[in-house]
Amino acid sequence: MKQQDINACDKSRIKRNNDTPDNKKVKALVLTGFGLNCDMETAYAFELAGAQAHRVHINSLVSGKADLNDFHILAFGGGFSWGDDHGAGVIQSLKLKNHIGEKILSFVNQGKLVIGICNGFQTLVNLGLLPGIDKDYKSRSVALTWNDCGNFRDQWIRMTVNPDSPCVFTKGFQTKISDIELPVRHAQGKFVTEASIIEKLIENNQVVLRYADENPNGSIYNIAGICDSTGHVFGLMPHPEAYNHYTNHPDWTRKRERIKRAFCKSDADESIRANEVSEDRSLTPGIRIFVNGVNYMASKI
Amino acid sequence: MVNKMISCIEIALKPELLDAEANGLKKKALEYYNIDIQDGRTVNLVTIDADLSEAELELARNQIFTNPVIQISSLVLNPSSSLTSFVFDTASHVFDTDSHALDTNSHAPLNIYFDWCIWVGFRPGVRDNAASTAMEAINDLLKRDFAEGEGVYTSKRYCIKGADLTRGDVEKIAGELLANPIIQQWKIFSKDEWETKQHTVLAIPKVALDHEPSFEIINIESDEMLEKISHERNLALNPRDIPVIRSYFLNDNVVKSRREAGLSGKDSNLSGNSDSENCSKNETVEAKTAIEGPTDVEIEYISQSRSDHCNHNTFRGIFRYHDPSTGENVVEDNLFKTYIQEPTLKLKEEKEWVVSVLWDNAGVGSFDNDHNYVITGETHNSPSNMEAYGGAITGIVGVYRDPMGTGLGSKLIMGSYGFCTGPIDYCGPLKANLHPRRLLDGVVEGVKDGGNKSGVPTTFGQTLFDEGYMGKSLVFVTALGIMPKKIGERPSHEKKTEPGDLIVMSGGRVGKDGIHGVTASSEVLSENTPAGHVQIGDPYTQKKMHDFLLVARDEELFDFITDNGGGGLSSSVGESAMISNGCEVWLDRVPLKYEGLDMWEIWVSESQERMTIAVKPQKINRFMELSKEHEVESTVIGKYTDTGKLHIKYHDKTCAWVDMDLLEKGFPKWEFDAVWISPTQRGFTEPVLKEPHDYNTLICDMLSRPNICSKEWITRQYDHEVQGGSVVKPLVGINRDIPSDASVIRPVLDSVKGLAFSQAILPWYSKIDAFHMMTCTIDEAVRRIIAVGGSLSHIGGVDNFCWPDIQYHPVKNPDGKFKAAQLVRACRALKDSCLAYGIPLLSGKDSMYVDGYLQGKYGESIKVSALETVQFSVTGVVEDSTKCVTLDPKLPGDLVYVLGSTSNELGASEYYELLGKTGLNVPKVCFDRFKVIYRALEKAVSSGIVASAHAIGRGGLATHLALSAISCGLGMEVDLSKVPLDAAKPDCAIPDNADGANQDNSYDVSQNKNGWQIKNTMLLFSESAGRFIVTIAPENKTLFEKLFSGMACRCIGKVTEDHCNLVIKGVYKDQGTWHHGQDTGSHEQDKNSEIIADISIESLESAWKSPMGGLI
Question: Running DSSP on this structure, what letter comes out for residue B668?
Fold first, then answer.
């Protein structure tokens, strides 16, 4: 019985990807505390991408117990920081700005990477790190506000990826994948700003992700994610860390069935689709976002 | 010292931006009350009662409360320092408010046009989460702490345009849509009233208790006196307990030891004494002291721990069960022991994976070599019926503390919900405290905020409607956690308190909220139920505590942890002190929300988000340091001892001194008469029905039934993928909108091991027999988990009973004996099912008073009791979650099978309910026959030959074929003549009828009387248990049928590519061959059948979505 268990357990372990020594040098800091709640899976996603991930409480950064300089990637994860009571991400951004604002700025100016997911994206725009037009990391010129439906929504959604965006996290998508499916899970994801800013963002290819079939929150220009003009700071509403295994995808059982049949009847396009799927199995589109970031930093250090 | 200022920051969205909140209000006002609001805007108010300079306030306004991109705001200053605030009247739990009109010469409020303005704010003492985060932010920004008595309060102002709106309309909007008087207060302004400077109410709901904390001695000179006091103080003491309580406190030794402890009765000048014979000298003293009563702290402690909620007196009671139909006469002593404890302990012996059951806050099962999972389920009915949002959020956040307080504490990994309310479109005469529609809106939102903000995925849930729930609606909440098998060297599921350990309280502060919640839930709802126990949970504070405690656990900083739920410290400290056999509590150290609470209130308050933890003195410093780092408040409030006494002090004064074993001191068991009246004796019969002609409409109408139709609007509001382990989601199918049989998550991300979870609630069968309600409920839960890839070898159960009052009373509860018999039968069924399927009960709870008194059309009061209801939750470990299956058929050409046999079991079915009937033939579970099929399906799933599997539940085969068709977006052709029948139940076998009437295709039933005409509806809508719809690839046919050879399993049709309709062939000829369940081995059309239903999946989908599709 026990022995059986162990075997079953070993078999059940999922192998890490991109376990190259280079990536191991890359250290990612994932913020925790004050109502943040995606820190575990975000850290796991960085580890799948081969990096060393560290979950660090916001107060440890504030108190200096942890030093931002020891890290290469700073991740603002999902959750409900301070309950989102006074605008999503507002108090978190204020706390960080008041205590370690300068440190974060120098982190960004060193060309290190910042990713903000959902509540993290909301925090980045309140901090002013985004849209970061022409490296202006201080002005608060875009906002993520209440969905038009007025409510929280959890749904998987397809987005198109801008192939010309400087965003390092989506670089890998340029070659073959033009779109990506991820879950959105938010009540305040509606991207709003004035026309002139939108034009700039489009012109600079800072619009990275756009909702393809359905706009779940009423975002202007169907914006789901943007980056700064350097492509080092990336914010998005959907959750790539929640697509860390192929079984996260809502259609995975149907895809699995198709592959099985494709192998039986050697159907041409079926088997092509099958190949794509099996690729997603080894490395999900969600995790590729992290891999792109980690690979980029690995090449820099 | 600056003059105390009260100021208000008003914030609104820029005019050009859509105001979703106001739009929602507009929508509801129109849909619910046909009140036409032309336009509306929401203004958020942050009222600050603190010595802040204008500059500081402006800084806060700009930095914290105003987003320059989307918001406008204004700082309204009020120089007046003579502001009267609320007075909190402790006696009656009501608040006098003197709201304050302010002079706005300084700064004006936002100038937003309206015809009517509704201001809504909290009542004093009601949890204001946004205010506390605002204070945190202001603290951090201005580097200044709020002084004693200073505070922040949030409220809202709704600016409504609508030329034709009357004050009555606006009152309705305020009272029915925006505010609940139990926790909120509102003011309405017409345009003119506003302009004549009556505007901007700055009523700050500050709790001002002008009260010196004290305790008093309870007069126990007679049973009557104590009973009277019990009523006055809302102690809900059981009359049978009263003599026991008195004799304890009148006992000489007790009196002596209490006096030594400093509890002298000098203020007691009562005379007369029962047992002072044996006292010789200073008789007067003895006479006095002998009738010294307990303190109110002690009597409250006893009341809490003896309450049915904490002590489960009903399940541990004595039932005199009588069944006239069989002549059975038995005394059931302790249902819990016989039907829950014994089978579970037996199964624990047999099943290696069962780790810890029956004693802790939640049950523990083994997940893998390194982890255990933890599960428990709760109900939060009474509070939710008073304040739906507050009750529900408190419920979900509260049940999440149970896994946190199980063993040495676990990390939360998922939650689920079960809502049972009256029909949301109810328009009858009965006036529920909250209309079912409003109640449902509230509980849905409460569980949303509680679950989502806790960062826990809500992966499963059900919503039911029945008029019986108008008396008391049910809110089930279930929580699962995971923990490493070992913390250091210690097994994580063990914990203990030892003498010398410090008692630490972590998390929220204590206020008057939640006082007597436990005793209230142990009563039938009445106008006397104190609103004081209604609270608003604070998931943010609890999430911080959750994260902190997991770190503290892994640093091995504590040896015991439990949550503060029902009964507050009284329960958590009282129970944990049993282990060390004593404690000394310093109540004056307990951090309070506001001064002026009496000792007993501090002791029993149910203020939320608190854990009680035992920390060794040498570890307390590190514990406190870590707590500070996570900004969680922790306080040492006493120490565990081995004195055998519960000793409570306030400063140096003793206010409680009772023996730890007091509760075992011969309190009498509760007793019930239980008399079973069989359905036949009750006059139940099968309805006399003939075959319908319009099956298409019938099937669509079934799909539109409230208990069948789509409730996607609820599921979508719940984050079901946070933590990144979602494998089988609550909604599946090509359009991701069909409720899944069960959910599966990967709680350990680098493993493909899965945790499957499902639930069932089938209260309708209780109309006929609660025994079969229970077996069917458990069977459906089991089938659901098997359908996604679970295994009978590992199924853990959680039983949540919700029962109407079973204590017979000729006037108040004349059918109490029958309801008691229903409970006994349900418990018997529970044991049978658990032993048959091998389900240990990892956890369970009971809520025994789901009745309410509603006012009727003529002002009369009517008692409404809910159906005897059980929510049964099951969990199972899936070795390889990549083998899980979903219910949606996958590809055209696939074969459609029905597993399990169908009988004439339409009793209490959805079909009969549609026709306004109940019937008699309730579905029955045949465990042994079903188990064989479940095992075979397990094999089929794990061998990968099953494309889809779906448990057939409420609404029968037709309903679930329709859902399958919708879920794959393809057509289906099935033949009812192929559906396996139950030969063992003759009442469902098709009679051999050679008479010519069968030859003609007419449905003129007058032509034959053999009764086969009803068979189509029986096959379509019977709710026989033990059945699945399974689809497979044609190439797997032989293999699949080999697996099920000799079992009720037949191919009834196929998934089609040439059309997108559900096409059903009926029976109208002798189908004698069925008796042997033989399969012709072909699925081509049977000459004996003709098409009775042909519906496009679009029509099916729109019928299924129409009732609630528009809700958000």
Answer: P
pLDDT digits (tens, 9 = 90+) for B816-870: 999 999 999 999 999 999 999 999 999 999 998 999 999 999 999 999 999 999 9
CB B755 within 8 A of CB B480: yes
Nearest CA in chain A to B729: A250
Mean per-residue pLDDT, A252-278: 74
CA B896 – CA B934 distance, rounded (Å): 17
Determine contact, residues B10/B108, Cβ cutoff 8 Å.
Answer: no
8-state DSSP, B65: I
Identify all chain A residues contacting B352, using CB atoms and an 8 Å cutoff: 1
Task: Determine the 3-state secondary structure of A262 from DSSP.
Answer: helix
Burial B299-315 (b: 16+ CB within 10 A, else e): bbbbbbbbbbbbbbbbb
Percent share of chain B, pLDDT over 70 = 87
Question: What ipTM was assigned to the predicted interfaces of this complex?
Answer: 0.93
Provide the pLDDT confidence category of residue B208 given band limits of 50, 70 and 90.
confident
Tell me if residue A118 is catalytic. yes
C-alpha distances (whole Å) from A196 to each of A199, A202, A235, B646, B995 are 5, 10, 20, 70, 84
Residue among B128, B367, B882 with most chain A CBs within 10 A, to mutate: B882
Report the distance separating Cα B1055 and Cα B1009, nearest Å.
35
Beta strand pairing status for A113-117 and A73-76? parallel
- Whether residue A149 and residue B753 make contact (CB cut-off 8 A), yes or no, is no
Torsion angles phi and psi, residue A236, rounded to 5: -150, 145
Note if the bond before A131 is cis, omega within 30 degrees: yes
Residue bearing the bigger pLDDT, B21 or B996:
B21
pLDDT, tens digit (0-9, with 9 covering 90-100), for B1053-1090: 999 988 899 999 998 654 443 333 334 444 444 455 68
| Dihedral angle sign, alpha carbons of residues B377, B760, B739, B889 | positive
Give percent of chain A with pLDDT exceeding 90: 80
| Binding-face residues of A in 167-226 toward B, CB within 8 A | 183, 185, 192-193, 218
Tokens of B46: 């942050």
Q: Of the residues A38, A118, A167, A227, which is catalytic? A: A118
| DSSP-based three-state secondary structure for B972 | strand
Residue B724: closest CA among B414, B954, B1007, B1015? B414
What value does the mean pLDDT of chain B take? 88
Residues from chain B that touch A45, judged by Cβ atoms under 8 A, are: 724
B148 contacts: CB under 8 Å, gap ≥ 6? none
Residue pair B843/B376 in contact (Cβ under 8 Å)? The answer is: yes
Q: How confident is the model at residue B4 (pLDDT cuts 50, 70, 90)?
A: low
pLDDT tens, residue by residue, B580-624: 999 999 999 999 988 888 999 999 998 999 999 999 999 999 999
Tens of pLDDT, residues B261-303 = 888 554 443 333 334 334 444 444 444 444 578 999 999 999 9
Locate B596 and state its tokens.
């002026």
Neighbour count for residue B400 (Cβ, 10 Å): 29
- Residue B333 CA to residue B318 CA, distance in Å, equals 5
Please tell me the distance from the alpha carbon of residue B774 to that of residue B758, in angstroms, as a whole number: 16
Q: Is A50 on the interface with B (CB under 8 A)?
A: no
Pairing of strands A27-32, B87-89: unpaired
Any alpha helices (H) in B581-689, and if so which ranges? 599-604, 620-629
Q: Which residues of B646-669 are buried (b: 16+ CB within 10 A; e: fewer)?
A: bbbbbeeebbbbbbbebbeeebee
Per the CB < 8 Å rule, is B540 touching A86? no
Dihedral (C-alpha) B783, B785, B791, B795: value to the nearest 10 degrees? -100
* Secondary structure class of A131 (helix, strand, coil): coil
* Confidence (pTM): 0.92
Which tokens sit at B147?
A: 């002084």
